[in-house]
Amino acid sequence: MQLRELLPPEHIFAPLGVETLHEAIGTMATALVREGTLDEPDLGDRILADEARARVIVPVGERAVLPHLRTEGVQKLILALGVSGKPLDARAAGLTIRPQIVALVLAPPETASLYLQTISTIARLVRREDLVDALAAARSPEDVLRIGDIADARVQASLTVRDLMVQRPPVPPGAPVRDVVGIMIDQRVKALPVVGEKGEVLGIITERDVMGALLPQIPRGGEEADVPTRIPLDLTARDIMTRSVLCIAQDMALDEAANLMFNKEVDQFPVVGEGKLVGFLSRGEIIRRLFGR
User: Fold this and answer.
1) Whole-model pTM?
2) Whole-angstrom Cα distance, residue 25 to residue 30?
């Protein structure tokens, strides 16, 4: 499927003629409601709500954002593209960047593959500065559709690991375990990759690794339990990491990665490209993004 099949001229807003990202999303959502494509008048406010925006507004580089949502308000996948000739104020969305490209992707809850593939395709395109420049210069929907790399881009039929992988802070082998635990707690993650100076994966630290290393510090029966448990200062990531770790390629088919995860009884894989860490795929991320609402 080509991107032009998902992007009719009436869903292209070029130029937007607004000052803020909030206004841009509102303008696009209102137009979709007016034409009968969207049955959720308060969609813009929902996307920008404090509890939702960090999850549904994805910045891509310094000049593009991808608001995306699965909603009962649409019957099929909807893609709308907003283009601004000048940077938009996005502070109300909690962003420090000033985007010029706003790609809004909406899909019914039961749609998963096409939804994620569309997001992935758009993100890949707007990472290119030359395409962002061309889009920012567009003065009509027709101008946008004349950009061949946009209109002719293909949305692949199958998902790959790249489409669902997330970023996790790489941990150097010499990092104190207390710092690693702090990152895991702050970011609410169950595992972190341990990475060398050249970006190569040296190991992985999971909650199980942390628990095993700190068992001697846990108060035993009859001991004072109200004394804070302290992590030894000299304990490092290298000391507790699992060294035998299976990495997967970012271009691997998602179903193949899911089967590998199931058969090997592991919860997460570091994702590599050209021998370096590029992302992280977890069982929870697959479930949340494919089946979550």
Assistant:
1) 0.66
2) 8
